[in-house]
C-alpha cells in the first residue's frame, strides 16, 4: 500500500513540476513578445544574418601582391569584415575573412600570436585549421610570374 501511494505522489509531483515549467515558458514567451524592442531586435538579427549570408556568396578577390597599398587595404578590409561577422555570431565566415588577412600579412606569426590572445578559443582553432586551405586560393588568384619578376 505504501509503495502505491509513493508512486502516486511521485506522479502528482512530476505533473505539478511539468505544469509549472510549461506555465513559466508561456509567461516568458509573453514577456518577450510584449517587450517594445522585440520586433526591432528581431529585424536587426534577421538583417545581420542576411548580410552574413550575402557576404558568403561573393568570392574573395585577392589583391596584386606587388601592390603594397592594395594588400594593406585588403588586409584591413578582411580583418574588419571578419571581426564584424564574429561579433554577429557568424563564426565560419568571420574566420574565413580573418584567414585571408593572415594569408596576405607580412608577419603572419606575430598576427597569429595577437589573434590567439584576442579571439575566442574555438574561433582561433578553426582559423588554424583553415589556414592551409587559404594558400592555394592566393596562388590561384595571383597571376603567373612574368620573366622580369625572376632575377
Summarize the structure.
The protein is an all-alpha fold. The chain has helices at 2-34, 38-57, 68-88, 91-104, 108-118, 121-141.
Describe this structure in words.
The protein is mainly alpha-helical and 151 residues long. 79% of the residues lie in helices and 0% in strands. The protein has six helices and no strands. The protein has helices at 2-34, 38-57, 68-88, 91-104, 108-118, 121-141. Helix 3 packs antiparallel against helix 4 (91-104). The longest helix is centred in the first third of the chain and has 33 residues, at 2-34. The protein is elongated, with a radius of gyration of 26 Å. The termini are far apart. 11% of the residues are buried.
Keywords for this structure?
single chain; 151 residues; mainly alpha; 79% helix; elongated; disordered C terminus
SSE topology:
Layout: H1 2-34, H2 38-57, H3 68-88, H4 91-104, H5 108-118, H6 121-141
Helix pairs in contact: 3-4, 4-6
Number of helices, counting only DSSP H or I runs of 4 residues or more: 6
Number of strands: 0
Sheet of most strands: none
Taken in chain order, the helices and strands follow as HHHHHH
Mean pLDDT: 82
Report the C-alpha radius of gyration, rounded: 26 Å
Helix content: over 70%
Give the structural class.
Answer: mainly alpha
Report the end-to-end length measured between terminal Cα atoms.
98 Å
Note the beta-strand portion: under 5%
pLDDT < 50 runs, ≥5 residues: 145-151
Describe the global form. elongated
Amino acid at each position: 500500500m505504501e509503495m502505491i501511494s509513493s508512486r502516486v505522489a511521485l506522479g502528482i509531483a512530476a505533473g505539478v513540476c511539468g505544469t509549472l515549467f510549461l506555465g513559466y515558458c508561456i509567461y516568458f514567451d509573453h514577456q518577450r513578445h510584449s517587450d517594445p524592442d522585440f520586433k526591432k531586435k528581431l529585424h536587426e538579427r534577421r538583417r545581420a544574418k542576411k548580410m552574413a549570408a550575402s557576404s558568403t556568396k561573393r568570392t574573395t578577390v585577392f589583391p596584386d601582391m606587388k601592390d603594397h597599398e592594395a594588400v594593406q587595404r585588403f588586409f584591413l578590409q578582411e580583418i574588419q569584415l571578419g571581426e564584424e561577422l564574429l561579433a554577429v555570431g557568424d563564426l565560419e565566415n568571420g574566420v574565413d575573412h580573418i584567414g585571408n588577412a593572415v594569408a596576405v600579412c607580412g608577419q603572419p606569426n606575430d598576427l597569429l600570436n595577437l589573434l590567439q590572445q584576442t579571439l575566442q578559443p574555438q574561433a582561433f582553432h578553426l582559423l588554424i585549421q583553415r589556414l592551409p586551405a587559404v594558400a592555394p586560393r592566393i596562388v590561384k588568384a595571383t597571376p603567373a610570374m612574368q620573366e622580369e619578376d625572376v632575377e
